[in-house]
Amino acid sequence: MENEPGCPAEGLLKILSGKWKPQIFRLALDGPVRFNTMLRRIEGSNKQSISVALKEMEEQALLQKVVITLKPLHIEYNLTEKGASLIPVFRQLEMLS
């Protein structure tokens, strides 16, 4: 029984556990999102906590950091293929709340 894969929702909840990760994922659903946009839209967040969550989500291969070299230089975060594959599960969980 221990080797049985968990349900997709359980896996997603584990991946998105931690402060701000669900909100960051939610913002990324609509397309590329900038760091400062996250700070403005996620109430109660701060630079350090968002930065830590983004780094963890990159390490989990949910988000990809893209440096845009156009003036002004900025960074955007996009869902990876793995992140995009979790959208249906995330939507189902959203419908339950």
The domain count comes to 1
What's the main sheet like? 3 strands, antiparallel
What coarse outline follows from CA principal-axis ratios?
Answer: globular
Quick one: CATH superfamily? Answer: Winged helix-like DNA-binding domain superfamily/Winged helix DNA-binding domain
Note the topology.
Layout: H1 8-15, H2 21-28, E1 33-34, H3 35-41, H4 47-59, E2 63-68, E3 74-79, H5 81-85, H6 87-96
List keywords for this structure.
single chain; 97 residues; alpha+beta; Arc Repressor Mutant, subunit A; 3-stranded antiparallel beta sheet; 53% helix; globular
Describe this structure in words.
- With 97 residues, the protein is an alpha+beta fold.
- The chain has a single domain (8-96), classed as Arc Repressor Mutant, subunit A.
- It contains six helices and three strands.
- It has helices at residues 8-15, 21-28, 35-41, 47-59, 81-85, 87-96, and strands at 33-34, 63-68, 74-79.
- It has a three-stranded antiparallel β-sheet.
- A hairpin with a 5-residue loop joins strand 2 (63-68) and strand 3.
- The mean pLDDT is 87.
Offer a quick outline of the entry.
The protein is an alpha+beta fold and 97 residues long. The chain has a single domain, classed as Arc Repressor Mutant, subunit A (Orthogonal Bundle), CATH 1.10.10.
